[in-house]
Design goal:
The chain has five helices and five strands, in the order αααββββαβα. With about 130 residues, it is of the alpha+beta class. Helix 1 packs across helix 2 and helix 2 crosses helix 3. Bound molecules: zinc ion (ZN) and manganese (II) ion. The site of zinc ion has 8 residues, from helix 5.
Length: about 130
């Protein structure tokens, strides 16, 4: 019995990862739940949340809080910068030069030790800009 449960748990986690890893659109837990539910009709939103939180804690994926009161998830755990659309809350990867020097800037008048930063860029995404133009 225990073996079956463990197997199911890891199969659920694999299904979540298989859905998330190839994506570039930073889906919410709800969106991931709706997709994984097709393969695992008995899976609960709570289980999806718990797995996503665990995977984020383990550094396999990352969690992005972007102001629309839902967390988005990113299959790419490496540090990179994000743009968040203030209109539609799309989360988009920014291809830009490394800005890690801001850690040094931030440390200038600070006696503690800075080990990283978390920056989100805001504005209008290309889709919303185009909609506005039409
Ligand atoms: Zn937008
Ligand atoms: Mn990303």
């Amino acid at each position: 019995m225990a073996t079956t449960r463990t197997l199911n748990k890891s199969r659920q986690r694999d299904a979540i990862l298989n859905y998330l890893l190839p994506r570039k659109d930073h889906p919410t837990a709800d969106a991931i739940y709706n997709a994984v539910k097709e393969e695992f009709p008995n899976i609960s939103l709570g289980t999806v949340y718990r797995n996503l939180s665990l995977l984020a804690e383990l550094g396999i994926i990352q969690k992005i809080s972007c102001g629309d009161n839902s967390e988005h998830f990113d299959g790419n755990p490496k540090p990179h910068n994000h743009f968040i659309c203030s209109e539609c809350y799309s989360v988009i990867d920014l291809e830009m030069e490394n800005i890690d020097f801001i850690d040094t800037l931030a440390a200038t008048n600070f006696n503690g030790k800075i080990s990283g930063h978390n920056i989100y860029f805001y504005g209008k995404c290309p889709n919303c800009l185009e909609k506005e133009a039409n």
